[in-house]
Design a protein that fits this description.
The complex is a heterodimer of chains A (about 120) and B (about 110). Chain A is mainly β and about 120 residues long. Chain A contains no helices and eleven strands. The model of chain A has no long low-confidence stretch (mean pLDDT about 90). The chains are: A mainly beta (about 120), B mainly beta (about 110). The interface of A and B includes residues 35, 45, 58 and 102 of A.
């Protein structure tokens, strides 16, 4: 059973470009979470999705950031018009039952975004 | 304010020695506490999950303790190995609310031969 997969592992963008990060959850998991980790800081929650639904996006900036988890295919975190402050590691996690349980979240290897 | 604080920030120990990492939290209402291990350049991997009623839980050479009254947890690593070098993250979940996981900034452990 493959783990959570993220691609690309490394992404370099110039200011103003779009960044698109992909996450394929573990087989059988329908809950996906995105986190951002700045250097020397802890992970910060961004958004929680189930298939075709955004459950909680309270941690996501109101502008330029969006996320989706379509019925088919991976979850996508999209950052439009990137700025240098968006440089960070973005982690995706998945779980089978969602929040409100002691369900373990399984993390992917992360995508390291560098904005030049 | 919901916060998770870990200490020390970093720690260097000799291979074969034991060590204890600390986590204090002010998160409420408490649901469970998790310890994750994050190798450099990788995603976090779960070590233990403890609910309110659990005082201790082991996973191999890792033993986590929880004191829900004082809102403290510790992670004890026995007979450390070079592969234990990583960041150890304490994560506390609340029972309700929009964002129910609160992450500490981690303790960076380095095991040297």
């Amino acid at each position: 059973n493959a783990g959570v997969m993220q691609n690309p592992r490394h992404l370099v963008r110039r200011r103003g470009q779009e960044a698109r990060l992909r996450c394929s959850p573990m087989k059988g998991h329908s809950h996906v979470y995105w986190y951002r980790q700045l250097p020397e800081e802890g992970l910060k929650f961004m958004v929680y999705l189930q298939k075709e639904n955004i459950i909680d996006e309270s941690g996501m900036p109101k502008e330029r950031f969006s996320a989706e988890f379509p019925k088919e295919g991976p979850s996508i975190l999209r950052i439009q018009q990137v700025v240098r402050g968006d440089s960070a590691a973005y982690f995706c996690a998945s779980s089978p039952f969602g929040r409100g349980s002691t369900d373990t979240q399984y993390f992917g290897p992360g995508t390291r975004l560098t904005v030049l | 304010k919901n916060q998770v604080e870990q200490s020390p920030q970093s720690l260097i120990i000799l291979e074969g020695k034991n060590c204890t990492l600390q986590c204090n939290y002010t998160v409420s209402p408490f649901s469970n506490l998790r310890w994750y291990k994050q190798d450099t350049g990788r995603g976090p991997v779960s070590l233990t999950i403890m609910t309110f009623s659990e005082n201790t839980k082991s996973n191999g050479r890792y033993t986590a303790t929880l004191d829900a009254d004082t809102k403290q947890s510790s992670l004890h690593i026995t007979a450390s190995q070079l592969s234990d070098s990583a960041s150890y993250i304490c994560v506390v979940a609340v029972q309700t609310g929009a964002n129910n996981l609160f992450f500490g900034t981690g303790t960076r452990l380095t095991v040297i031969p």
